[in-house]
Amino acid sequence: MRENMTEVAAGGAVLAAAAAFLIYITQVTGFSAGSDAYSLIASFRSAEGIKVGTDIRLAGVKVGTVTGMALNPQSFRAETTLSLIPQVQVPDDSTVIISSEGLLGGNFVEIMPGGSLENYGPGAEVLDTQGAVSLISLLIKFVGGGSDPAAAPAPDQAPTQ
Known about the structure:
This protein is an alpha/beta fold. It has two domains: 30 residues; 103 residues. It contains two helices and eight strands; from the N terminus they run αββββββββα. Strands 7-1-4-3-2-6-5-8 form an eight-stranded mixed sheet, with no helix packed on it. A hairpin with a 2-residue loop joins strand 2 and strand 3. The protein is extended and about 75 Å long. The termini are far apart. About 4% of the residues have low confidence.
């Protein structure tokens, strides 16, 4: 009898931990069954560093998450679905940028609001986007000295006597 009670208590603890984990995952990814979030579509040349569940921030505050990513076979661009909280209305001249938290930090999607009085509606496509900047390509340009001949130092001249 005592063994059965121990097994029931252990099973209950496992179920409670699983439920807590499930609640945590739905909050982190922004997935919620009762959410009235609205979606925008943004197309990037390079969506390197972001994935489904990546934060969307406006002025440093999380206002949504990336809920979908797919390759457009006609334009060869990464089409992302951005799910935003309904309290945030994005002006239709805003820019969506893939930003980095620093050299060792992760990437996030940043909304730079414009000044328009009109806002994007649900399902609208953001036209002004800027993809991720590859740190590797920047380092290669820096180490290689770039291709700008004006940036090269002038050769030393021999002194005249």
